[in-house]
Amino acid sequence: MRLQTDPFRFSITAFMADQVNLVARQERLSPGAAVLRIQELSRDPAGRAHLLEIISEAGRHETNPVESRKIAAVRSELAAWAPSANSDNGRPHA
């Protein structure tokens, strides 16, 4: 399934759909199970870091350059939305 993200124009709908698609692919889950997995991983910094790694791994395995750019855009947005992936209790380190 092709990803929906446009690397040059942000869409929350495409961003969320592509996260589900990528997690489902990488973890071999149904879309519904992937949504639950994303929710589970989003609960704490270690989980958010793991979610970023799942998306990164999908990018490393993608051979289509167009899809690869989309995955990079999803990862970049996810990293921006989850800055506490490398912090404790959701608070960045000073």
Structure commentary:
By secondary structure, this protein is an all-alpha fold. It is 65% helix and 0% strand. It is built from four helices and no strands.
List keywords for this structure.
0% strand, disordered C terminus, 4 helices, 65% helix
Q: Any idea what the radius of gyration is? A: 13 Å
Major sheet description: none
- From the spread of the alpha carbons, the general shape counts as globular
Order of helices and strands: HHHH
**What are the segments in which pLDDT stays under 50 over at least 5 consecutive residues?**
86-94
Decide which structural class fits the backbone: mainly alpha
Number of helices: 4
> Mean pLDDT across all residues, rounded?
87
Beta-strand residue fraction: under 5%
Distance between the termini: 41 Å
What secondary-structure arrangement, pairings included, does this model have?
Elements: H1 12-27, H2 31-41, H3 45-61, H4 65-81
Helix pairs in contact: 1-2, 1-3, 3-4
Question: Briefly, what is this?
Answer:
The protein has 94 residues and is mostly helical.
